[in-house]
Amino acid sequence: MSNDVEKYCSDYMKFLAAAKTERLAYAEAVRMLEAAGFKKLESAKDLRPGDCVYRGYHGKTLFAAVIGAAPAAEGIRVVGGHTDAPRLDLKPKPLYEKGGLAYFDTHIYGGIKKYQWLTLPLALYGTVVKKDGRKVDVAMGDSPGDPVFMISDVLPHFGKEQLEKKAKDLIAAEDMDVIAGLGSTAKMLERKYGIEADDLLSAELEIVPAGAPRDVGVDRSLIGAYGHDDRVCAYAGLHALIELAAGVGRARRRTSMRFLPKTGAVVLCDKEEIGSVGASGMESSFFENTVAEIVDRQCRMARDIDVRRALEKSQMLSADVCAASDPHFPDADSTGNEAKLGKGPCAIKYTGAATKSGASDARAEFVAEIRRTMDDAKVEWQMGELGRAEKGGGGTISKFMARFGMDVLDFGTPLLNMHAPWELASKHDCFHTMKAYRAFLAH
Ligand code: MN
Ligand code: MN
User: Fold this and answer.
1) How many domains would you assign to the chain?
2) By CB count within 10 A, which of 37, 39, 249, 428 is most buried?
3) Among residues 155, 182, 211, which one ends one of the domains?
4) Ligand 2 centroid distance, CA of 377 (Å)
5) Would you place residue 256 in the very low, low, confident or very high pLDDT band (cuts 50, 70, 90)?
6) pLDDT at residue 333 in the model
7) How far is it between the farthest Cα atoms of the chain?
8) 266 membership: H or E segment, kind and range
9) Quick one: 7 and 118 in the same domain?
């Protein structure tokens, strides 16, 4: 493996370890952007080619851009990924005791196979907002010496009846409750964080697998981690944009002024795993409002039509992971059209189910343009489908962007056992995903 791949993946793994929730991913991304000289969009009075700006929303959704030579009204290039991942959310009144044990009552967020979450070390992360508006960040389970949490399962000796059930019924969603201790949980939370049970009414607390990403395999060619979906693409987009910003900065200092031809942007959004709904999801107006903010700073007397043109002439890679073919589960594959681990990021023309229902089907002209861009930049990439017809399919944010009339293609890193507490990606694919986004934003 080349040094470039190793260095990139080691940085990605650090990001992943720090970004266990969408809020933490946001904070980490803002830290990276500010270190690279990006300024808040709100603080920019006007925008010129080469300017690097970002706009955050609710501490969860993020838009970052390097302003290009052409005005935004001529369209921008966007790489859009999401930073939320399947997990268990604590209910508003999560604390209860049963049989001498203290529990956190949880509500499933995103598509999971429930049985995979039993008897694993789990961590607790989130934000509690007190009535007076003060925020308290909670993080327990990943720092050395931290306790972890777990969901119990019945022992095999007593589990004969349970094992006769269908896998989806092995445990009920309402029983996915997390052991918080032997009692006095509320008191401990009060002592450690100064939060009372009532404060949990206004909180976002998430249970996620404990532990940092690890190299997998004797050759260390793979990364096992929680939350590759979709932080692997989110990080790749962010890294690519920051590299391009640095390139523009260097060119500027040499006064050769080589700008991106069009404004290059990265969107990291929330709530993809539950359908992109809500104010921080891609269905909200955040994206078009941000494009409007850019257009407004680029042309005096910007009109609504300028924003509509900017949106319609834009192009997007919907940066989301796809399913890699698993040799042990060949029935899931669309044979001949399956993504393979280690063969680079995969373009998915349409992600819909059996009849393409719900798919944002990229037009052939745009796919051809992407082929050209990737091949010119020597990106190793592949093309595939999302699983076997009548079995596969899945939603991404592409359809929410395509509604503006822009070209959108799903393009992301293949994963093995996506949505499991521990997902598997190939280092080679991670690196080439970043190269792909860099080529797209810069071409
Ligand atoms: Mn995803
Ligand atoms: Mn997903």
Assistant:
1) 2
2) 428
3) 211
4) 28
5) low
6) 81
7) 74
8) strand 264-269
9) no
